[in-house]
Amino acid sequence: MNSELSIITLIKEASPVVQIVMFILVAASVISWTFIFGKYREIRRAEQTSIAFEDRFWSGIDLADLYRQLATESDDCGGLELIFLAGFKEFGRLRQQSGIMPEAVMEGTQRAMRVALNRELDKLDERLPFLATVGSTSPYIGLFGTVWGIMNSFRSLGSVKQATLAMVAPGISEALVATAMGLFAAIPAVIAYNRYSTNISRLANRYESFTEELLSLLHRQAHTK
């Protein structure tokens, strides 16, 4: 309890510049944790829906029937489901046009799926740059507060004849608190960014593989009728 009170006292008695630094770091940390939890749920949902859709896709169901089922659930669809919907919709639209070559049908289908895939990856990448920024800049912001606090501590010694540790201890302590807050904001952001970037890369590979597999199936249909 005393240590908590001493830290609170150090924050209250810190110089205005150091207090601003601490406020920025606390705000960055709170926002980062909000993004971390939100992105965790988003990626986990994308992984679960991908697994469920792949099981459904490879169950032997007719693609036209699968498309009609998903079209009625489009508000709840995501990831692979939206990629499939975009590709199959464009495939059906182009095949209904008279005089269009199968190659043109497949090119249009691939383009529609690529647009949907990029859109889904953009959603997953959203807010990750903020975590990267917090992870890379927070230690330096905390270091700035540290330097400022130490500088004030030594500057206060110029007006006294005999310096003691008790005179510089508060300033150095508040400086170290700023350093600790910078690390507290940076470390979770860096860990989350690296972990989520890896997860998104895996999802991107999964989306790419599914796109190629679906194009192969549609390619056979385009050349059989």
Report on this model:
This protein is mostly helical and 225 residues long. It has 7 helices and no strands. Helix 4 runs parallel beside helix 7. It is rod-shaped. The relative contact order is 0.16.
Number of domains: 1
Characterize the quaternary organization of these chains.
single chain
Strand percent estimate: under 5%
How far the N terminus sits from the C terminus, by CA atoms, comes to 78 Å
Main β sheet profile? none
Topology:
Layout: H1 2-13, H2 16-57, H3 63-71, H4 80-95, H5 102-125, H6 128-156, H7 165-222
Brief overview:
The protein has 225 residues and is mainly α. It contains 7 helices and no strands.
Could you name the key traits of this structure?
single chain, 225 residues, mainly alpha, transmembrane helix, cell division, MotA_ExbB_proton_chnl, ExbB/TolQ_transport
